[in-house]
Structures are given as structure tokens and as C-alpha cells.
């Protein structure tokens, strides 16, 4: 299955039933929400337990209803702290398999590591897909230049819009007739694209090699839009951010930021970094493998601001950097793409 909606030779795939379980936190269903937003044509409905308080606005379907309406795969689209597959999720995964659905998951705990789930898949001849399984054969990065053009989204923190920005850039470039491909590095992106490597499941020495693998040489002059992860300023996740900067060999960077955030996610003692310091740190790291890298824009997540404040802060930050600044969800990315194309003429 590809990001263009084509189906590869795998049994799992759309149409999807998006599993929300007992979720009560909007951020915990970002995998399901990402699929519903970027691939709505693939999503038939949602499956929620009675105590679930969040919704995607899709029809609530029982497992047998979903199967009858044509669903092929139930995607576990809700995550808890640590990505644990608790008893409820295990029971619901088995029930989905018994209803005739394949099951896909982005949790750290793997479907394939749970004997009861594996047994249910086998007796029903259904497939399991773990999006957070890196797979074998990832090489060590070598830093050698390769053909093609690459843009990497980087962030001041985790969960600030790096995936959404990369997907929006891909969509805009394709609409303008430019070859462009989203390259997924996280579980949600992988389920959206149908391919990729979950870099947070890769042994540290191989993260840069994983980035090289998902964005190989391309002779068509097109763009790879590589999904960034973490932040160089997050004590927990800076390592994966650095590996992506080196392995991506980006020609261009887009800095993603949530202006209402006051501290690093999960670490209240660490404030969000200064935007200019963050941009310079990312550029400095990227220059190791591509000395010509340049910033082409700022992407803000302004969902916590009124529209007039969002417009004002985009204008102020854009002026600070001398770069276009937009919210990809509410404003689009057309000014970023204009600047990208102007900065890298054929």
C-alpha cells in the first residue's frame, strides 16, 4: 500500500476501522486522527468502548458491523503511556480477528509478541501488522551524497506538527506537478503511507542508516519530504532527531513549533527552546552531511489560539526569520512551497 492510495501485495490495508478503545485524551488518538485526516477515503468508522470520551466524528461500529460494511483491517489508533498493550486492547484485538478483520498497531508492545493474539490470527487466517517493528537489514549510515532533493521537518519539541507539515508539503508539491513523496519515520506516518521505518524502534547506531534507506537516491529531481521525530532540545529524544538530520542529508529544513507550549512534552522543568537557537542547532547538525542545507520556512501549530492571534504570531515569527510562516492545517503551506521552489530552481 502506498501513500497514493495504491494497494501492495499485503493482506492488511484499507478500508479501516479505527480503534479508540477507552481513550479520554485527544493526544492519545493521534494515530487514528492522522489516518482519518489524511486518508479519509480509507476510514469506514471508529470502534470505541463505553468509557471512551473522544471521537473522530466517524460512525461508531461494532466489529461485526464494520466487517459487514467492508472493513478489512482494524487499526489500533489509540496509545497509552509507554505504548502498552493492556488487557482491553488484547481482548478487542482477538475479537476483531474472530470477526474476520486483520489487525494493525502502532504500539510499542507488538501484536506478534502476544501468544493469544497470534493464535487468533492463525485460526482465522488473518494478518497482523506492527508498524513499530523496524525490520531486518537496516545499514549503518555512511553520509555519502546521493541524488535527489530532500526536506526534513524538525521541531522545537515532540508532537508539534512535523508529520502533518511533511504530508501537507507533499500534497501541495504534487498538485503543482512536482514529483514528491512523503517518507514516514513514525507509526502513524507508516500507516498513512503504507511504508517507512519507525526510527524510535531502531538501534541507535542505525538511525542515520534508516533515514538513508527510506530516502534513497532518486533521479527525477523530485522531493522526498521526510517526517522528523523528537527535538534536538528534548533530553529524552534528541538522539533520534540527530540521527535523522545526518541520515536525511536534507537540502531544506522546515522548523515546526507550537507557540502556546511552555515546556518540553513530559518535562515541565525544561522550557521550550528559543526559536532562533533551535533553528541554528538543526542547521549546524545537518551541515555534517549536507553543508548546503538551508531553512525554507516555519510551520506553527496554532490550534490553541484564536484566528487573529494565530495570524499575528505567524507574521511576527516569519518576519523574525525572513521566511514564510504558516499553520499547515488552518492556513496551508503554499507560501512555504513557493519559497522552496524559488530556492531550488531546476
From TrEMBL:
Source species, domain of life: Bacteria
Residues covered by the D-glutamate N-acetyltransferase-like C-terminal domain: 140-337
Protein name: Uncharacterized conserved protein, NAD-dependent epimerase/dehydratase family
InterPro entries from the UniProt entry: DgcN-like, DgcN-like_C, DgcN-like_N, P-loop_NTPase
Pfam families linked: DUF1611, DUF1611_N
Taxonomy of the source species: Bacteria, Pseudomonadati, Pseudomonadota, Gammaproteobacteria, Lysobacterales
Boundaries of every D-glutamate N-acetyltransferase-like N-terminal domain copy: 56-132
Amino acid at each position: 500500500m502506498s501513500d497514493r492510495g495504491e494497494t501492495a501485495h499485503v493482506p492488511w490495508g484499507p478500508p479501516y476501522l479505527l480503534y479508540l478503545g477507552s481513550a479520554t485524551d485527544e493526544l492519545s488518538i493521534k494515530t487514528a486522527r492522522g489516518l482519518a485526516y489524511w486518508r479519509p477515503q480509507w476510514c469506514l468508522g471508529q470502534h470505541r468502548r463505553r468509557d471512551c470520551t473522544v471521537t473522530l466524528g466517524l460512525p461508531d461500529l461494532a466489529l461485526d458491523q464494520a466487517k459487514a460494511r467492508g472493513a478489512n483491517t482494524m487499526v489500533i489508533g489509540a496509545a497509552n503511556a509507554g505504548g502498552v498493550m493492556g488487557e482491553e486492547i488484547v481482548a478487542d484485538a482477538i475479537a476483531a480477528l474472530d470477526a474476520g478483520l486483520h489487525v494493525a498497531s502502532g504500539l510499542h508492545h507488538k501484536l506478534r509478541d502476544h501468544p493469544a493474539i497470534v493464535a487468533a490470527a492463525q485460526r482465522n487466517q488473518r494478518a497482523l501488522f506492527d508498524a513499530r517493528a523496524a525490520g531486518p537489514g537496516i545499514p549503518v549510515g555512511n553520509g555519502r551524497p546521493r541524488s535527489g532533493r530532500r526536506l526534513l521537518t524538525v521541531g522545537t519539541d515532540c508532537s508539534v506538527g512535523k508529520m502533518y507539515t511533511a504530508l501537507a508539503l507533499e500534497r501541495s508539491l504534487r498538485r503543482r506537478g512536482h514529483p514528491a513523496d512523503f517518507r514516514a519515520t513514525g507509526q502513524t506516518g507508516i500507516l498513512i503511507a503504507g511504508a517507512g521505518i519507525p526510527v524510535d524502534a531502531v538501534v541507535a547506531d542505525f538511525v542515520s542508516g534508516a533515514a538513508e534507506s527510506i530516502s534513497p537516491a532518486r533521479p527525477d529531481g523530485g522531493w522526498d519530504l521526510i517526517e522528523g521525530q523528537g527535538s534536538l532540545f528534548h533530553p529524552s529524544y534528541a538522539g533520534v532527531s540527530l540521527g535523522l538530520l545526518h541520515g536525511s542529508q536534507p537540502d531544506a529544513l522546515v522548523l515546526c513549533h507550537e507557540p502556546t507550549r511552555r515546556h518540553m512534552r513530559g518535562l515541565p522543568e525544561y522550557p521550550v527552546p528559543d526559536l532562533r537557537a533551535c533553528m541554528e542547532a538543526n542547521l549546524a547538525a545537518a551541515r555534517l552531511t549536507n553543508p548546503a542545507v538551508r531553512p525554507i520556512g516555519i510551520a506553527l501549530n496554532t490550534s490553541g489560539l484564536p484566528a487573529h492571534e494565530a495570524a499575528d504570531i505567524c507574521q511576527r515569527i516569519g518576519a523574525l526569520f525572513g521566511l514564510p510562516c504558516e499553520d499547515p492545517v488552518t492556513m496551508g503551506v503554499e507560501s512555504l512551497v513557493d519559497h522552496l521552489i524559488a530556492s531550488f530552481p531546476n
